[in-house]
Structures are given as C-alpha cells and as structure tokens.
Design goal:
By secondary structure, this protein is of the alpha/beta class. The chain contains 6 helices and 7 strands. Strand 1 and strand 2 form a beta hairpin. The two termini are about 35 Å apart.
C-alpha cells in the first residue's frame, strides 16, 4: 500500500507537457499517451537497476524474478548510491541480514561482472568503514565517503558513533 502522501497519485489525470524541440514551446500532451520507453539512453547500452532487482540477485528467493533480473543485467547495469543504500536497508530490515552479510553483499555487487556501481571506490571505502563499525550503518558510511570524495569535510553530525570516523565531527547539542 502506498504511503498517505502518495494517495490520489493515480486518481486524477495530470496534464503532461513535452518540449517541442523545433518550436521551443510547451505543447499539451494527452495524459493517456505515454512516451516510448527506450531500452538504453547511452552509447554503451548500460541500463540502471532498481532496489528490487538487486535484492533478487542477492537473496535469490523468487526464481522467476531472479531469472528476469539476471537476464536484464546481462548487457550491463548501473547501480546508483541510492539503490545501494535502499538495498542494504531491505537486507537489514526485511531479511534481517547481519552487518557482515550486508558488507559481503556490497562486495559481491562491487565485483559482479555485469554490474557497475556508482563511484565504486567510494562504495568500497564505505564498506570498509561499515565492516569496522557496523553500528554506524552503511548509509552513514557511504554519506561520509561521498562527502570525502567531493572534498566537503568535515561532515557535521549529532551522531556520536558516526563522529568517531575520520572526516566526521560531532556538533554540540
């Protein structure tokens, strides 16, 4: 069931607009007509995957979805930070995997022959921090490493565990 803030999302047709490239103006488009879905938007043919695809690849608990997920990624698939964080959350909250199992799953994704993880070096560093201090949580470890790569340290936090990592600083409460 969708959260209450999503209620009504599909109930009322929305006006959809597209930019007409030669006229440089907006034209009204019928809400019932959908744009053609492209299999690939890049020259490499790599596509992106959603959280549920990664969960199927890791947990392997639904044979049909596993087969579809494996088939989809055969030509290569990209994993964003957000999808990775959601995946680790699902593994923890839904499948009750341990921190070590989650770190192993992240390593598996980093080393998968058909997957390309966004900023793999950043994710790898986050996985290392997470292995050393699992109480911090993978998402916080990743957030710190993203800030480090961007050159935006220190990372201010009220979280006393996160503040123990190099590059984070605890703010006074």
């Amino acid at each position: 069931m969708a959260p209450s803030w999503c209620a009504g999302r599909g109930d009322t047709p929305r006006r959809m607009y597209t930019r007409h490239s030669s006229r440089r103006h907006l034209q009204k488009r019928s809400p019932g007509i959908r744009r053609k879905v492209f299999e690939s938007t890049s020259a490499s043919g790599m596509r992106a995957v959603d959280t549920d695809v990664l969960v199927r690849l890791i947990v392997r608990d639904d044979a049909n979805q596993l087969r579809a997920a494996e088939e989809f990624i055969l030509r290569g698939a990209w994993v964003s930070h957000l999808v990775l964080v959601e995946t680790t959350w699902v593994l923890d909250a839904v499948y009750e995997r341990s921190a070590e199992q989650i770190a192993t799953a992240v390593d598996m994704l980093l080393n998968h022959e058909h997957l390309s993880v966004q900023d793999a070096d950043v994710v790898s560093a986050a996985a290392e921090n997470f292995r050393e201090r699992p109480a911090i949580g993978f998402s916080d470890c990743l957030m710190l490493e993203i800030a480090r790569k961007a050159g935006h340290l220190p990372l201010g936090t009220f979280d006393r565990n996160l503040a123990k990592l190099s590059g984070a600083t605890r703010l006074p409460q």
